C-alpha cells in the first residue's frame, strides 16, 4: 500500500527546488555545444542530452562506443530523423544512457568553467530561463539524486529559486557521482608514477631517466601503440610538462602525464577507472575452462589469418606485407596440429595459389592475391570489410553446427593471426582478448553478399549478454596466459609493458576488433605476431625458422591450456 503522506512530503520537498517560473509548453531553442564534429551536448527543458550524427558512419560508431553505455549501442529507438539543431539524422541519448566519459564530455562542453578541486566539484551556473538550470537538476547530474539539492543549498547558502548565471556552487566530494568524484588522496605513488592534483587536474609525475624518451613512457603507461596515437600523447605530455621541444628535455626532468592518458591498471587503487577495470577482471576470472584434452582430443581449433586478396594489411619495412606472413604462420600451425595432435582444425581462409603449404623464403611475395574466405559459396577477397565480417560468420557457423554441443564452449578455440604497424619503438608479440566493458557484441547484416551464404542465412544477427562477454574475457585470458608463459619459456619477445590487451586504441578511442566483438566462440584471440615498423621484429618475422617457432609456441600453448586445467 502506498504511503500517501510520505508521497506528499516528498512532493512538497521537491517543489521547494523548482524555479519560480513555469513552463508554457513551448520550449526555446536548446542550449547546444559541440563536443566534436560528430557529437553535440544539449541542454533542453532542464535535461541533458548527447546527440551523435548518423554520418560519417565510422565517426558515429567511435563516438557511440566512447560516450554511450554498451547496452544502448544497437538500439534504433534512439535514432531521430533530425537533431535539435540539425536537419540530418542523429542518435539522441539522455543522461542516464551515457558512460562516465560521455557525461564528463557533456559537462565539459556545456560548463567549461567547472572543475574538480580537493574541496569538491565547483559548478558555475551558465543557463537560466525555462529551459535552464535548477538546483534539483544540478544535484541529479552531479550526485545521481535531485534530493541532494537541499544539502547543496545549505552548503552554499543559496536560495534554490534564485540561481544566477555566474554563480558558483561547491558540490562536496562525498556527494559526487563516481563519474565526477575523485576518491584518491594525493600525492600517491603507483609503480614509478607519483599522482598529484594541480590547477589543471590530476597528473602523474615521472622523472625521466637517462636513455628514456617520452615515447617509451607512452608505450609503458598508456594503451596507445600506433605511431599517430603515441605522438599525440607525447605532445600532450610535453605541453603539460611546460616543454616546447622533444630535443631539449633536461636530464632527470620531472614529466607530467595527464591522468586521462594512463591505462587503468596504473591508476591509484581507489580511482573509478581502475576499480571498474579490476572489478571486470575479477568477474571474468570466475569463468575458467575446466575440461582436459590429451593430445587435444575433442578440441576444435578455428584458425584465421588477417587480410588477404586486395587487402595486404600493414606494409612493413622493406615492403613486407602483413597478410603473407600471418598466413604462413597459420599454415604452420595447421600442419603441426594435423601431424601431432588429434584436434579438429578449420581455417577461415585459403590461398588458391599456395594452398596450406608453408613457405621457407624470407621475402614472401603476394603472387596473384588469390586468398578467399571459405564460406559457401567462397568469397574472393575483393572487399576488406566484407571479408572481415564473413570470417566471424564462418567461425560462428562452425561453432554452432559442427562442434559437439556438450563441450564446445570450453573445447573450441578461435585465433586470428596478424602483424601490426605501430610506433617503431614498440617491439614483440601482443595478444588481444575481448574486454567485456568495451563492446556490446550485437549486430545484424542484411546485405545480399552476406545472406546469400549458407553460414549467414537465417543467422545474420549476433547478440551477446554481459554474462557472455565476461565468460569470453575469462576464457580468452586463460589461454592468453598460457601463451605468455610459453613465450617466456621459448624466449619469444612480447611487448614489454602490456603483452595482453583487452581493447585496441586507434585515434584515441578504445574498441574491440570486429573479429573478437562478434565471434561467439568463448575462447578467442587476435595475435599480433610482430610490429612491422620495428627493424628487429621485421628481421625475426622474415626468418622461416622464427615463423616455425611461433607456430610451435602456439601449439604447445594449446596443449598447456588443456593439460593443466582440472574438472
What would you say this structure looks like, in words?
Strands 14-13-18-25-19-22 form a 6-stranded mixed beta sheet, sandwiched between helices. The chain has a 5-stranded antiparallel beta sheet with strand order 1-2-3-5-4, covered by helices on one side. Strands 9-10-11-12 form a 4-stranded antiparallel beta sheet. The chain has 567 residues and is of the alpha+beta class. Residues 1-27 have low confidence and may be disordered. The longest helix is centred in the C-terminal third of the chain and has 24 residues, at 466-489. 33% of the residues lie in helices and 19% in strands. The chain contains 16 helices and 25 strands. The protein has 3 domains: 4-175, no CATH class; 188-283, no CATH class; 291-358 and 394-438 and 463-506 and 518-563, Zn-dependent exopeptidases (Aminopeptidase, 3-Layer(aba) Sandwich), CATH 3.40.630. Helix 6 (214-221) packs across helix 7 (227-240) and helix 13 (466-489) packs across helix 16 (544-563).
Keywords:
567 residues; alpha+beta; Aminopeptidase; 3 domains; six-stranded mixed sheet; five-stranded antiparallel sheet; 16 helices; 19% strand
Task: Explain briefly what this protein structure is.
This protein has 16 helices and 25 strands. The protein folds into 3 domains: 4-175, no CATH class; 188-283, no CATH class; 291-358 and 394-438 and 463-506 and 518-563, Aminopeptidase. It is globular, with a radius of gyration of 27 Å.
